[in-house]
Amino acid sequence: MKQRWKYPFAVMTLAAVLTTGTAMPSHVMADGAKDTAAIEEVVAGELPSIGSISIGGNNTIELKQASLSNAAESGRIVTFTLTVNNQGNNEIQFIDYWVRLKSSSGTSFPVTLFAADKDKNRIPAKSSMDFRFYAKVNDKTNLEDLSFNFIQWDFSRSDFEKPIGSVAIPKDYSLLTAVGSKRMATIGNEPMKNGIKRVSVSKNDTHFLPTIYFEMENTGKRGAKLPELQFNLRTAEGLLYPLNVSGIDKETVINPLVKKEVTLTGSIPIDVNESGWQLQIAETVDLGNNQTVQVPIAEFILPDSTKEEVSVGRDYEFSNEDGTYGIRLEELKRLPWEDEDLLTAQVTLKNNGTQSLSIPNLTGYFKLDDAVTVDATIIRGDKVIGLQPGQEITVQYLGKIPYTYDFSDVKLYVQEKKETSQQPAPGVPGGDNSGGGKVEDLIQFVHNSDMMVVPAVGSGQKQKIDDVGRKAQYSVREVHTFTGKTGNIVVALVEVENLEKRFNEVSKLVAHFVNPDGEVYPLNISELKSKVSPGGKALLHLSGVLPQGAETNDMQLFIGQAVKEGKLAGKEDVPDAYIQPLAFALPLEKSEPSDDLRNIEFFPYTLSMKNIGTTMNFLSGDLKFSFDYEFGKDILVVSNTENHKLVIEIEDSDGKFQHAQEFSLESSAESGGGGQPGGGGNTLQLGSHTAVVNINDPELVFKLESLDKYKLNVYYQFQPGQRKLITSKELKWFYTAD
Fold first, then answer.
1. Average pLDDT across the chain, whole number
2. Which pick of 35, 89, 589, 654 has the fewest CB atoms within 10 Å?
3. How far apart are CA 198 and CA 303, in angstroms?
4. Can you tell me the distance from the alpha carbon of 487 to that of 493, in angstroms, rounded to the nearest whole number?
5. What string of DSSP letters covers 463-520?
6. pLDDT tens by residue, 451-482
7. Is the pLDDT assigned to residue 607 strictly greater than 90?
8. Strand, helix or coil for residue 154
9. DSSP letters along 258-302, please?
10. Measuring CA to CA, how many Å separate 256 from each of 58, 194, 216, 516?
11. CA 448 to chain centre
12. Burial class of residue 177, CB neighbours in 10 A (0-12, 13-18, 19+)
């Protein structure tokens, strides 16, 4: 059935497509990994002392670090560290000292030692020791409002307290580390160099979706068992959002001089200001009495995110609780299909880690011009059940729209569906998101409708499908027009090479011819009866009815992997869509017949004829036509030529006599590789044989008046009534031609 596709036709070579640049700007953003790497060696040391007081001699008590955290219920919790430096020759007992915490308004806040530090007291000579404290303050208290007043217990005084000094926190005090710098911090009792490698931020209609790639390096001499760490994103307004962590847990041990990459992901409401973000690393500390507090270890200013352009083939990353995955948009196309059009996107998923990963339960949807949501069906063609390190698989997104609908921009939302019924999706749900389950947005790609054309490779060039378990290479060998009385059948011979290491079936395909005016002609595809060997080839005959006079020189051939109800179609399935489109410029058809009877080619067959002769009994009117032949076939090519025929025709030069004889084609698999001398009837047998055609016509002597020359015509017959002349040679009656 003839159909018309309304989009402009363009013949594009693959090389041209690769030089067309990027697609429309995406909402996927990053800070620029190369710039960050260039300043990796800028390392900030431990946080400097806020202040210190003398306790006699060269001995001091230092206020090293202070931070504010939100309490579990109300108010805030101040945490700070005091370091006692004993430079003398005798030990110091910390029990002799204490600290009072007051606000600028005079309010006192009781302080408490962390549970882990309560048993500490004696500081040996020539050493230092840290003591960590916490105090609960009100919501309005800031660090710069606090003063730390140190006392020494003195029982000769009425209040038993001897003031020995005070330290206030300066207004410009901050834990923040500058963009591009790394921060030294003690984690797991070992010095750790920490820094941000790169940042990317995508967004959907309701949330920002940041991904932060963080690196920790143990610069100490012993393995560091990580404590329970919490990573938070803090906004310019001071709002704190916990991040999901992939790559470490509280059981992780980082050995000396080992670097560990951590991937942090989160979901931030779209109404939050996206500038001024910070990363906070906090250690969860037990306060006793079933209370914990997050004590900040280090804080980093996040680089300002800048929008990038998404181009086909660019790598991005996302993480879940299983690990870190690479993701790449390979193509996003609009394809003709019956009275609809298809939106198809091919996404490559890669395991970027060093451990095997499960395959995430991906889902998603398309959005046209930020207005119309199109449900997407997810199709996986790879025959894999998990991702090995470095392994890639492809995932197809498929949607349908009216062929009359115009749009400018299209977004692809890639999501993951979790097996839970707790939380709704942060974005707009796609077609596979119904039912119980939480859907999380992973990344969003933006594309332009002008770049959705399927690029066609030039005549004779090959294209691959790289799905694991179905790897194959496709090319168009030849095009043939078989003329009939009411219309022409045009057949494209498509060669499919099996690139797998096992016998494999050729995928069920969908195919169309598309002419320069956008008209679409569906094609029938010959079905193979056997699998293809490793490195072997299959020959598919793709045939369609075209009006007489239709030219194939400027047409394209579209082929795609057939789909039925969201899965790759089987042999008996009637497809309802297709994916992974490939487009080919059709080769020029050889329209003039050859006159070489020794080298008649109709792939995958070859025929050579010799000792061609005619004899006649003029009394009975019996004409005998005979020839020796050698019939061959490429044994590595699997094809279905069950109804195909070779027609050999004798036509007298004056046009009064004509006789055609059909010969079936027999392959080695069908014939056992041989055939009996004499030709086995009207079937061409593989190998060398003799064929004899007997014609009885009592009036023949009166038809052959000149007895001079005749034409020997060889036709390839695709189906009854549809033939193509491939060889024609003029011979003499009653002579034997070599």
1. 83
2. 89
3. 8
4. 20
5. EEE--TT--EEEEEEEEEEEE-SS-EEEEEEEEEEE-SSS-BPPPPEEEEEE-TT-EE
6. 777 888 887 899 998 887 889 999 999 999 98
7. yes
8. coil
9. -EEEEEEE--EETTS-SSS-EEEEEEEEEEETTEEEEEEEEEEEP
10. 34, 14, 11, 66
11. 19
12. buried
Residue whose tokens read 């560990």: 260
Q: Give the containing element (helix H, strand E) for 402.
A: strand 392-402
By the 8 A CB rule, do 550 and 589 touch? no
Q: What is the mean pLDDT of residues 372-376?
A: 94
Would you say 649 and 658 are in contact if contact means Cβ atoms under 8 Å apart? yes
Of 107-116, 255-264, 346-355, 429-438, the one with minimum mean pLDDT is: 429-438
Q: Which long-range contacts (CB under 8 A, 24 or more apart) does 616-620 make?
A: 616/700, 616/701, 616/704, 616/734, 618/701, 620/696, 620/698
For the chain, first and last CA: distance in Å? 47
Q: What is the pLDDT of residue 262?
A: 87
Query: Do the Cβ atoms of 32 and 542 come closer than 8 Å?
Result: no
Amino acid at the residue 498: N
Confidence (pLDDT) at 706: 67
| Neighbouring residues of 25: CB distance < 8 A, sequence distance ≥ 6 | 307, 308, 309, 310, 446
Contacts of 19 (CB under 8 A, 6+ apart): none
Q: Are the C-beta atoms of residues 567 and 575 closer than 8 Å to each other?
A: no
pLDDT band at 124 (very low <50, low <70, confident <90, very high): very high
Which residues are within 8 A (CB) of 558 and not within 5 positions of it... i.e. 6 or more apart?
335, 336, 454, 511, 512, 513, 514, 581, 582, 583
Question: What is the SS3 assignment for 116?
Answer: helix
Length of the chain: 738
Say whether pLDDT at 574 is over 70: yes
Token readout for 424 is: 């709704």
Looking at residue 270, its pLDDT comes to 87
